[in-house]
Amino acid sequence: MKKSFLLCIATILFLAGCSMGGIEEVDEITINEMLSFGEVKPDSSVTITDAEDIEILIEGIENAKKEPGIADVVDPEFELLIGERKFYLWFVGEGSVMDQEDTHTIYTLKNGVREQFEEIVLQEFE
User: Fold this and answer.
1) Concatenated DSSP letters for 13-77?
2) pTM here?
3) Is the pLDDT assigned to residue 78 strictly greater than 80?
4) Dmax of the chain from CA atoms?
C-alpha cells in the first residue's frame, strides 16, 4: 500500500514536471509578431478577447510536451503575453512554445494544437 502510494506521488510529480502548467486565467492575450528574440515588430500587437480562443491557447501551452536537452532554435514568430507570463511561439513542424523565463527549454505542441493556434493567431493578423 505504502509502495503504491509513493509510486503514485512520484508519477504525478514527474508528469507535472513535463508540462508548463500553472498559467493564470485571463480575460485577454496579447500577441506580438517578432523580428527576433526580444525584438517585436513595430505596430504588430493584437489582443485576443474571445474566451474560447483564450482557453485553447492556454490549454495548448499547459499541455505542451517538454523536449529533452537545451533548446537551440531560430528566432520566434510570435510572442504571447498571458497575464504576467510571456511565451515565444513557432509554427514550424508540430509547433513549439518557450517560456521567456526559461529560454533553455522548449515545449512541443500536441497533435492538432498547432493548427488551432495558427488559425486563432493568423486570423488576428489578417
Assistant:
1) HHHHHTS---PPP-S-EEEEEEEETTEEPTT--EEE--HHHHHHHHHHHHTPEEPSS----PPPS
2) 0.80
3) yes
4) 59
